[in-house]
Amino acid sequence: MKILNIKVLILMIFLSGILQMDILNISWDKLKIISVVHVFASIFLCIFYIIPFVNRHAYKYIIVKKVNSIIGWVLGFILLLIVLSGFYLFFIGNTGGDKLGIYSFNIHLYASFVLLFFLFYHTKKPKQKISSIALFLAFTFTSAVPAYSSDTKIENELLNLKTQKDVNYHNQDWTNSTKCKSCHSEIFNQWANSNHKNLVESNPYYMVMESIAGEVEGKEFKQWCMGCHNPSGLTTGLTQTGHSMNDNTLANTLFEKNAETLVKTYEEHGNTRLEEGVSCLTCHRITDANSKGNASYTLNLTDRKKYPFEDDESTLGEFLGHKFINAKPNVHKESYMKPLYKDSKYCASCHDETSPTTNKQIVSTFKEWEESPYNNKKDKTKNKSCIDCHMTYLKDDKFSPLQGVSTDGGAVKKDIKVHYFAGSNHFLAGLKDKENEDQILQLLRTSAKLDVNIKNNQVHVGIENVGAGHHLPTGVADFRELWLDITIKDANDKIVFSSGKLDINGNLQADARPFMKVFADKDGNPVGLLFWKYEKLLSDTRIPAKTRRVESYDLEKNLNYPLKVSVKLNFRIYPQWVTSIVQKAFPELPNPPIVELKKVEEIFEK
């Protein structure tokens, strides 16, 4: 093949590479085609035409004619670098944490310009050299001029889950989270054992409550629950949550670790079956949110840039899809990361909740934070958002930002935002993974401190909310149990006072003082499980952020001093009476343990 033809082939490869530069602003649909052409044309032409020609050309002039051309050597070396860097970029990728990937990208880009320059310069005839250089400079200049696509942007209708209208997604629009595991393995495993993932089928409490809500209020009422707990089901037209299947039998995922059923289902059925809970796509394709709650977010699954072969479920297709993403991951990152995700109103879209029947606010976590000292945008040293506490790694009961990578092979970050989503429900997460449970328990232990004193024949216990950026407890605080367990013994080791013990059924005795909300209906009767019927607030004894509460108890007179006082701050994620109801439908569910968050012991002389 003549050298002119080789130059034309190299020029074509160069051009298809240059067209992928961001500065040209070519539409993504065209870029996908160009990138496929560039990769496969480069591989094919290099293997079958360019490299064989270079070998013959070098043999002819170096071995046979004994010509020692410095420009020729430079050309050969640069071509080798470009070929090697190109293969590295495609088969290994440039994920950000690999220096070879960064070097390969820069070598592949800038060495291509150098190669083209020397390629046109490498000729015997001086006039051709001048004209070639002029042509190269003109081409390079025109290539660098920004061009703007004339394609009109197609605006997809966005589904605002707060209104629950226009539910028109297909199962396959919901990219299975298992696909994310291939590049985000550690993040996937953290999420797989978290309460975000296991919100419905793996959460017996939710399944019972959704069923009761449907029986009491009608089947359509279930969709209010599904807006945050099961958005994939809701947006594909389901009106209630079903159970996950293991082939043709019901899957028991209560004790399952690392989403084994989800991974197996994807391997066998591809992207045709929905997954439970809040998936990767749910959070990372929210395009807007506000603090109204009740799923007040806008979800957009389909209006994004997809790489070649990204949705291909064949082995070869998945392989190629990953290679195209890793070769130029910035577009992928832009599709799934928004500045909104650092804003607390993003979390508020589901973590504030209002009853659709009474219009009373049931959960007000965001508003509690908004009114707290932690919402201090004027002083960044005092300001803490939701993710600063709930997505920061903990060690030895202290926040200890985790250094590592969020993408396998990616850049090392000083503070990886972990996906344990530590909150309060250590129990269900702990049935799957003890590390996940430990992160939640550590966070709970940072929330409060205790002090105790005896004065004027009373025991005074101080509880201060020192760590929670909202009330303690928050969330579904009508179900959370946080209380003082007090035992006082006299000089003869006789118990002279106790409070906060359990009865024979495992429920708190009447003398206990739990920090919680108690809801009532319009007639003032406690609503029990039917929390959405809340119209009147009977009591709210929770502790706001940075607030100290003192609980005082009367003691008997003429006690035998010294007195030994033991005070525990106990926590239980669900009352025993609630768990007992759920266990009738899910008998394999164990009882949630009582967790000791703080303990103080003092001896008092008279």
Describe what this molecule looks like in 3D.
The protein has helices spanning 3-18, 28-64, 70-91, 99-121, 126-144, 178-181, 185-192, 204-217, 222-229, 231-235, 260-269, 280-284, 315-327, 330-336, 344-351, 365-370, 386-390, 426-430, 434-445, 576-585, and strands spanning 159-160, 245-246, 249-250, 286-289, 297-299, 352-354, 361-364, 394-395, 398-399, 402-404, 413-416, 448-455, 458-465, 481-489, 495-499, 517-520, 536-540, 548-554, 563-572, 595-604. The protein has 606 residues and is an alpha+beta fold. Strands 15-14-19-20 form a four-stranded antiparallel sheet. Strands 1-5-4 form a three-stranded antiparallel sheet. Strands 12-13-18 form a three-stranded antiparallel sheet, with no helix packed on it. Strand 14 (481-489) and strand 15 (495-499) form a beta hairpin. Helix 2 runs antiparallel to helix 3, helix 3 runs antiparallel to helix 4 (99-121) and helix 4 (99-121) packs across helix 5 (126-144). The longest helix is centred in the N-terminal third of the chain and has 37 residues, at 28-64.
